[in-house]
Amino acid sequence: MLALARDVQEKDEMTHEEQDAIEKIEPVEKDLRQEETGDQGQQTCTAESGEVQALVDRLKRLQAEFENYRKRMQREMQSLEDRVSDREILDFLPLFDNMERAFSSYSGNDDAGSFIEGMEKIYAQFSQVLRHKGIAPMEVLGERFDPAKHEALLSVESDEEENVILEEFERGYVHHERLLRPSKVKVSKGKPKTEE
Asked: Is the pLDDT score of 66 beyond 80?
């Protein structure tokens, strides 16, 4: 309606009374347009605000669920580690029991021969437990020194060629072909150099 009134104004065909009527209508029409726009904007803002709040709530729930999941996984991992550790300990308890029996038997009768025999059996049992777990000692005497598998404590001149292992101070072990502990060894520097 306002657009029509403007068209009429442009053509200068309006009377004074018509102009007064248009002037009275324009503010009312403007207010109505603002109310409609405001209501739609407010409705749009309210709808968007509701969507944003729903997304925020969902995000908070997901964060809480993830935190609970993380804590549960930590508890389960700790429980699994404890069970594995318990299983390992159970394999070694019979060895401890046998050693306890050997010492109590030896203190009761002072029979060194039977004590040594009992300790040899315990040693064999212990070796069997290690083999069963995939742990094997490394054989290093006469081999070439490898810093990835051996730790040189001494280096001496000898008749052997350079970097050959002469003596093992502490045995090294592998677990399923993976180094568990390096061997501590004495290594040859080679033949002594003679002064001429």
From this structure: yes
Give the bridge partners for 183, in sequence order.
150
Angle at the Cα of 186 from the Cα atoms of 179 and 189, rounded to 5 degrees: 115
Q: Please report which helix (H) or strand (E) contains residue 110, including its range.
A: none
The percent of residues above 70 in pLDDT, for the chain, comes to 74
What span, in angstroms and rounded, lies between the C-alpha atoms of 72 and 195?
Answer: 72
CA distance 112 to 125: 20
105: tokens are 């038997």
Beta-carbon contacts of residue 161 (< 8 Å; ≥ 6 apart): 188, 190, 191
Domains of the chain: 136-196 (2.30.22.10)
Which tokens is 55 given? 């997304």
